[in-house]
Design goal:
Helices cover 29% and strands 14% of the residues. The chain has 229 residues and is an alpha+beta fold. The protein has one domain. This is HNH endonuclease.
């Protein structure tokens, strides 16, 4: 296990819920912390409705994709998304949003030096320090390469910068879990914690809707299945 991790499940069971995370259905702009499970019958029905409205198509070619096409990581100047131009880069914004017991670098109210993360993907508590930075990675829920293949290749640079820095599309998560995901859609990868999978599908759908992107048919079927569809 990577240095800095505590493998014990977070309080309240799996899914990294902790005491701060909120349901994606109650967090449509991504400014509130974490990713709490979607559990009630009524909320799971809402989740299925959101997913059912997604358009589907096949993934296009990856030709021409590069991370820099979405701007440098992590810019504070992606106008049109929450937290833009607040003096902190996007990575530190979402670490501060989701972390507990956050400590900043001496003399800074921006750069996060250490925190505790209730990881939504594994249900583990990660005691993170900047010294072991890769123990926590920032996941693009809807991966940028996926976005590129589903239409972002034809977007303006400004729009690509927005989706790359939109807190709706960003979660600080367990580094190895994020590395295993790579640029997969839900049909190929889901969070190891089963309790969070419907919430993950909702967040994926929220990003797709906001940016008018389709998903593949296998991804849509998988997403519906996570929420009882």
């Amino acid at each position: 296990m990577p240095d800095g991790q505590d493998a014990s499940a977070s309080p309240g069971g799996g899914g990294g819920t902790g005491g701060r995370a909120v349901s994606p259905l109650s967090n449509p702009d991504g400014t509130r912390p974490g990713l709490a499970p979607v559990t009630s019958d009524a909320d799971r029905a809402k989740a299925r409705g959101l997913i059912a409205d997604l358009r589907t198509k096949g993934r296009g070619p990856r030709t021409g994709y590069e991370r820099d096409a979405f701007g440098y990581a992590w810019m504070d100047t992606a106008d049109g998304v929450p937290f833009a131009r607040n003096g902190c880069d996007t990575r530190n914004d979402v670490l501060r949003r989701d972390g507990a017991k956050v400590r900043h670098r001496s003399g800074s109210d921006c750069v996060v030096e250490s925190m505790t993360l209730e990881d939504p993907y594994t249900g583990r508590r990660v005691n993170w320090t900047k010294r072991h930075a890769t123990d926590v990675q920032i996941d693009h829920v809807m991966p940028l390469s996926y976005d590129w293949q589903m239409g972002a290749a034809h977007w303006s640079e400004d729009k690509r910068r927005r989706i790359a820095n939109d807190p709706l599309n960003l979660l600080p998560v367990d580094g190895p879990a994020n590395s295993a995901k790579r640029d997969s859609g839900p049909a190929s990868w889901l969070p190891p914690s089963r309790t969070i999978r419907c919430a993950y599908a909702v967040r994926f759908a929220q990003v797709a809707h906001k940016y008018e992107l389709a998903v593949t048919s296998p991804d849509k079927r998988t997403m519906l299945a996570q929420c009882g569809g």
